[in-house]
Description:
Shape: globular
Distance between the termini: 38 Å
CATH topology of the domain at 204-317: Methylamine Dehydrogenase, Chain H
Amino acid sequence: MRYIVIFFLLFSTLFAQKLLLPVYVYKTSDGLATDVLYAKEKLYISTDSGKIDIFNTKTKKEIQSIQLDKIKDFMGDEIASKIFTIDLLDKNLLILSQDNDGYSRIDLYKNQKLVPVITSQDKLNIIKAKFIDNNTILLALISNDIISYNIKTHIKNWTIQASMSKFSNFSLNNDRTKVAIADESGNVHVIYTKNGKKFKTLSGENVDNLFGIAFRNGVVLTGGQDRRAAVYNLNNSSAYYKLSKFFVYGVGLSPNGKVGAYSCDIDNNIEVFDTINRENLGKFKATKKVVNSINFINEKEFFLNSNSKNVLYYKLK
């Protein structure tokens, strides 16, 4: 009996250690990574030091960097403008960062120049910003107010409050016509980006504060404090959740929504699975840091952005 127990302990240990390693690790030149995006063989990494490092993913070399000006804190001291989120549409780079006096600012980087869109004078505390189209951006405030904002006229097209709960995160679908909004209630509110009208509320699979959300091809994946990674399929109205061993800080979906990923344990390692048949496709070793986001670039490759200087690149077998 003792040998049987030892055998199973050895087997479980070996199995637990069978983590797939990243293919490559990108390192920021200054500061911790806050957001990541990929487009046309370029990887953009924003940092809390107010810098964006741009890498060529073929050569693995840094080809450009963008540095924001320093700002003043409440004491009047100069500090780095922490970048919260970035987005890219066509050749325009959208940058949400910290501004003077604790407010937010948004800049457009185009033609090698930074163009201010929103500054501390607007007195907005923006948590996340993404493009809807070339003229419109979607803003989320901590109050769960969601704003469609025209960057040319500087006029709000519409404003709604997704719910009375505190905002957590949002994710746009592939064509940016809908946005899925997660909050501390565990519910997900899907609205149309054109007019802010409600499409659907998703509930029942998460029961606590949500951290991460992804929305691709009619599939919504969430992760939260209840240690659940929930899958809502809007195409067939199905829903289920997968249990994690720790809080699910980060999630990601492939472009067609068939492959999902979530942080699955206290070390923030990543479990990848088939969202249709729920089959696990592999477990990937991470950095033990809190996962900010998981970014798929196709059905086989993804980047992991944690609260560190490293952005990890993985490839499914």
